[in-house]
Amino acid sequence: MNIKHKEILIDSENPFANCQLDRKKYSEVLSGIIEAYSEGFVLAINNKWGTGKTTFIRMWEQDLKNNGFQTVYFNAWENDFENNPLVALMGELKTLTNKPTDPSFQKILKKASILSKHVIPIVAQSVVDKYIDTKGVKEAIVEASKGVADLFENDVNEYSKKKKSIQEFRTELSHYIANTNNGKPLIFIIDELDRCRPNYSVSILEQIKHFFSIPDIVFILSIDKEQLGNAVRGVYGSDRIDSNEYLKRFIDIEYSIPEPEKDVFYKYLYSYFSFDDFLENSARIKYSELASDKRSFLEISDILFSNDSVTLRHQEKIFAHCRLALRAFGENTYLIPEVFLFLIHTKVLNEEYYNNIKLKKLSIPDLQVKFYEIIKNKLNEDTERLLMWLEAYLILFYSNYINKYGRMSNIYKYDSDQRKNILLVDSIIDNSNKDRFLSIFENIERSRNGGGLDLSHFIKRIDLTESIIN
Length: 470
Known about the structure:
Layout: H1 24-36, E1 41-46, H2 53-66, E2 71-75, H3 85-93, H4 102-115, H5 124-131, H6 135-144, H7 148-178, E3 186-191, H8 198-211, E4 217-223, H9 225-236, H10 243-248, E5 253-255, H11 262-272, H12 276-279, H13 282-285, H14 293-304, H15 312-325, H16 337-349, H17 351-358, H18 364-375, H19 384-402, E6 412-415, E7 420-423, H20 434-447, H21 456-462
Parallel strand pairs: 1-4, 1-5, 2-3, 3-4
Antiparallel strand pairs: 6-7
Helix pairs in contact: 4-7, 8-9, 11-15, 14-16, 15-16, 16-17, 18-19
């Protein structure tokens, strides 16, 4: 049994063989764009963190290799320890070098060394003034700059030389690429650009634009555009900067991988983590109250993962935690899948709410209000019934949790005059139909389907404070 989702293996001959999201078709679209515009451009693949961009990129990269393209993969986040991105980018290009092309690469390195020359910042004094108030310390640092005025004069004198060097660098780089790519553009993939240091992210973009804008290189940037925009604003120190317009200076084509069908990934995870070993165990399903747990688990999964607010990575985390927590349930122990999965979903995505439940900080109306905030975008005619049952279970188990001896007394009471039960708590999902909500509680009580449980039954297992027994 797996308790962690392993990195997906990429078959060298059939890279998308293990793709569970049917994304090969999108790689074919993107490869077609490269074939059509082989002179070079910058393509940004823009999706939120945790949506499977890196896996898609690595699969697509292998597919491009299989079709005769030279590729370079650079993980910006793993390499932002290097202050000068040009050094890192050239280091990755070096991997393409062989004996015949090494002399050409050495020429590029000489040109690059001029571009990456370390010069003491002209703005030394202004930076010191901004961050340091002690006059003596400021003066010491400024003195250590060793003649800022002289350096400024040298920079002015070298301006033309440096400008010429940029053109010479591009020319040498063009020759080098032409000799290594067999008539096809070089594919330079930069992954995790939005996760590295903000100044490093911006520096990479600037260097791509100024130094690498040549024919026959296609840059593929894997980004979360919103997060990268935050990095841009952070570097320039202003929330007023239009980061979207700024990024358009660098990106020629923007593409977002379409979201998979809502049920594809959670059904794959259900199988991957072998939930049937527990939910469909013959020793368990012989109990009529537990026999439909698999169906209930998949139904609530379908609702909770019904929109893109839950990323693929979060779905992995939720299912992995579910499978681990299940090991503390016996073969004849009530699971109530709706509540169990909702609580783990809450623990992963709304930890403050989960902790407030655990610490008994909420009133029942407070519990319902936050519950509604979580499920309101998932509520429709098809899901209303199951979500009302979830709401009822949550209210009942929380009521039992904060009042051990209350049971149903906080939910409804018997009115002897009317000879029927009177609901004391309205549904936040549908407060116009009290009889409908009351009937759910009566059904739970009548069937004895876990109605005596309280939330500690779930929380102890979810928080892994109960012993593993299966």
